[in-house]
Amino acid sequence: MNTLKETINYLEDEHKEILIFCDRMEEKCLEILNGNVDKEFFKNAIIYIRKYADGRHHKKEEDILFKAMLENLGPVAEKVVRGGMLVEHQMARGYVMELENNLNLFEKSKSDLTKLHILTNAMAYVELLRSHATKENNTVYPFADKNLPEDVKKKVSEEMKIKIQEEKKDNSEKINLIKILGI
Fold first, then answer.
1. What sections of the sequence does the record tag as coiled-coil (predicted)?
2. Does domain 4-181 have CATH number 2.60.120.10?
3. Contact, 92 vs 123, CB < 8 A?
4. Which of 29, 89, 94, 100 is the most exposed place for a label (fewest CB within 10 A)?
């Protein structure tokens, strides 16, 4: 990763994987409408989201790219990053927390209400992430690439390269989880 463009391409590739995951989660939500709650899928989905979609992807954005934008691009970045992207990251975490809470309740009660809440929170997450990835790909990333100073772009790229190399050292769990989830 020698350029910010390569860094952005990598983040966009992660978005593609996350969006395929979202399609799969939507399919599992449709199954709920037919009476089937695939508890194991949703448990593994929560692990995938927390460790990879949020724990790796969002973490790289927050700790590296967004941090550089906030430090260098003034009020516009403040509005876009703090008022938009970081808020959406937190919203996604909230949906996942509620999904997990209702999945646990469902295991005890099997009630229609807990099914509804599983469906609602899973689909809220899906729709949020679809919209979120589009905003980042079409607006946030190009804004960063166009406006960050060259030395900052280089620093972001170097930090991202190190982080990605660390992540690739231990990818076996992720690969296994992707197979289990069918993505």
1. none
2. no
3. no
4. 94
